[in-house]
């Protein structure tokens, strides 16, 4: 799923207090690893931190430059996506990371901070990771790195050890409603504290996805499930379905454990990790999402 950025930060109060307190005390780390599940507002949180650092006022020319990607003190890296939400490249290349070195070498006006944001740091190539490591090992003066990830376990230990880890968590239903007043109870149930998922489920083309997930996790015949997803080939729709299915499988495992049906809980848990491996393998090997979806259906039978 591509980024759905909102200017309004709701929730993550503890993390925000932690960052701003460190800044005020002069104990600011030069590199921050922002971790959390997909779509919970990690990028929005980072932009909130950037606003704080540069004292950016809402609706000001500075904010417009920040949001358009032209702010002179901020550089962002992420994998490019096509119109359907598919990555154009498998990883973030070393050439892109080298842009950071040039960026930090430039003289900042008024001795201001320079901020680098890498969204999806787990997607760095090996050589790009090594280039980033050299930068954060010997950071330029008044430099800040925000490394955003949804897969903390995929980050090199050498990079993790040089960053201040800040974990973000799914939003409460109260905060979800505050951010998205039109969200329904049903969408809250499936969004699991992710504003990005909630925004997508509000779109007409995805309104049937909760029912689709219920069908795929049911005992319905295989042909019925295959027919139900036959129109889904790639892009944002499949990525959203992956996310909803994983959350659904996890919930099934938890519910079974709460009912003391530990064998069923273990079965669902194994399906969860097998599905996660399928998705990661598909990404690393650039497999067609259509084929991966068929394998996931087989896993759910």
Notes on the protein architecture:
The protein is of the alpha/beta class. The protein folds into 2 domains: 13-167, Rossmann fold, CATH 3.40.50.300; 203-300. It contains 14 helices and 5 strands. Helix 1 packs parallel to helix 2, helix 8 packs across helix 9 (195-201) and helix 12 packs antiparallel against helix 13. The longest helix is centred in the C-terminal third of the chain and has 24 residues, at 262-285. 31% of the residues are buried.
Lay out the secondary structure:
Blueprint: H1 13-24, E1 31-35, H2 42-54, H3 61-68, E2 74-77, H4 94-105, E3 114-119, H5 126-137, E4 143-149, H6 157-160, E5 164-167, H7 173-179, H8 185-191, H9 195-201, H10 209-216, H11 222-228, H12 236-258, H13 262-285, H14 289-300
Parallel strand pairs: 1-4, 1-5, 2-3, 3-4
Helix pairs in contact: 1-2, 4-5, 8-9, 10-12, 12-13, 13-14
Give the strand tally: 5
Q: How is the main sheet built?
A: 5 strands, parallel
Q: What count of structural domains? A: 2
Quote the average pLDDT: 88
Radius of gyration: 21 Å
Going by helix content, strand content and strand pairing, the class is alpha/beta
Order of helices and strands: HEHHEHEHEHEHHHHHHHH
Query: Helix amount, in percent?
Result: 40-55%
End-to-end distance, in Å?
Answer: 26 Å
The spatial strand order of the largest sheet comes to 2-3-4-1-5
CATH superfamily assignment of the largest domain?
A: P-loop containing nucleotide triphosphate hydrolases
Count of helical segments?
14
How large is the share of residues in beta strands? 5-15%
**Form type:** globular
Tell me the name of the CATH class of the largest domain.
Alpha Beta
CATH topology of the largest domain: Rossmann fold
Low-confidence stretches: none
Q: State the CATH architecture of the largest domain.
A: 3-Layer(aba) Sandwich
């Amino acid at each position: 799923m591509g980024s759905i950025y909102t200017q309004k930060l709701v929730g993550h109060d503890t993390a925000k207090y932690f960052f701003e307190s460190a800044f005020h005390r002069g104990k600011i780390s030069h590199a921050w690893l922002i971790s959390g599940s997909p779509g919970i507002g990690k990028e929005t949180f980072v932009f909130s931190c950037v606003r704080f650092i540069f004292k950016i006022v809402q609706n000001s020319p500075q904010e417009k430059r920040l949001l358009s990607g032209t702010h002179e003190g901020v550089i962002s890296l992420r994998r490019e996506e096509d119109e359907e939400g598919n990555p154009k490249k498998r990883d973030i290349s070393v050439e892109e990371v080298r842009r950071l070195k040039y960026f930090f070498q430039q003289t900042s006006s008024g001795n201001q901070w320079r901020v680098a944001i890498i969204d999806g740091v787990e997607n760095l190539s090996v050589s790009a990771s090594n280039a980033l490591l050299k930068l954060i090992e010997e950071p330029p003066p008044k430099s800040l790195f925000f490394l955003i990830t949804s897969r903390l376990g995929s980050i090199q230990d050498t990079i993790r050890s040089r960053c201040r880890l800040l974990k973000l968590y799914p939003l409460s239903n109260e905060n979800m409603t505050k951010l998205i007043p039109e969200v329904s109870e049903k969408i809250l149930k499936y969004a699991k504290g992710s504003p990005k998922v909630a925004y997508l489920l509000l779109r007409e083309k995805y309104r049937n996805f909760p029912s689709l997930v219920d069908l795929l996790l049911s005992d319905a015949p295989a042909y019925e499930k295959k027919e139900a997803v036959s129109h889904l080939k790639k892009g944002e729709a499949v990525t959203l379905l992956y996310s909803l299915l994983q959350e659904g499988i996890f919930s099934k495992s938890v519910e079974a454990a709460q009912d003391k049906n530990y064998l069923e809980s273990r079965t669902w848990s194994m399906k969860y990790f097998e599905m996660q491996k399928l998705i990661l393998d598909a990404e690393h090997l650039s497999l067609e999402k259509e084929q991966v979806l068929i394998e996931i259906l087989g896993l759910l039978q």
